[in-house]
Design brief:
The chain is 43% helix and 20% strand. The protein is an alpha+beta fold. The longest helix has 29 residues, at 130-158.
Length: 330
Amino acid sequence: MEQNPNNSGLLTQLGNAYCDNKDFENAEKVLSKAIEIDSTNIPAYKLLLSAIGELTDEGYDERIYHDTDFRSKLAFDIAKMADKAVKIAPNDMELRLIRGSIGVMMPFFVGKLEDGMADLLMVTKSDAPKETKAEAFYWLGMGHQKQAHTYWIKVITEFAQTDATKLAFESMQPTIRHFDPPKYQKPYLTVEFTLGYRDELAPQTAVWVEDKAGNYIKTLYVSGFSAFAKEKQSNLDRWAKASGFQGTDAVTGASIDAGGHVYVWDLKDYLGKKVKNGEDVVKVETIYWPSMADQFVSTPISIGLKDSRIVVTEGNIVPYLEVNYFAVAK
């Protein structure tokens, strides 16, 4: 660069190196210069949009403190730059993906959400690589989610005294179940887990306990459809085969959805008999429709004279499972 400071291609390479090194401020400077020298340098546009995006993610800093309009001006600048790049290379699907994701991420006042989603839809219908299409579908989902929240916010702010406002608040709130220890007499066991996925319908889910040898002990929860499907039940295969649908009436409930859930076991089997000390296995199975996304997770837990705790973090459908056994205090 010292020998040839006005070479747009070299500036682009240097900007790429700065991005790789996470030095986005210097990347922004050299890439802006590269575009100033060659206004048709599409690789430089792509890198510059990425670098500026990273800079905007840095949070509240001195620039924002001294200039409260900094972020809004930056948002308009990014949108304008993306429009210019797409005008130069309208058939570049990677560039369409970048502009589309920017349109989804931008604040509402920039007014680029619908245009961004149109870009993303174009990518999904193109011959772009699978990875590019997958990312476009992800950002389309984010865009639709953002649109939903925009409508809900409108309901809450403009129609505050209506029943729809309550529905909007409920739709925004994640499901969280709380555990109140004083309500229970030791010994007991708690099963706490998170459902980290949402489909068109709430999933079928079952939580149950078996002994170490695989003998069924008790179902702690099963969603209603599964419990009453009986011989036609085909989705929660593991739970169905283990339980034989025994003792489900008292624990069948409405289908649970994304969020945190807690169930308490009083250490009695489905016939009401107290279980013996030893190692039992807690199991959670869930399956969604229509995606058929599913996960099965289990963990052993020791029941005896001492408290015990197990945490399992694996997968994305049930990303967190925590089992606690609370023994009788000596």
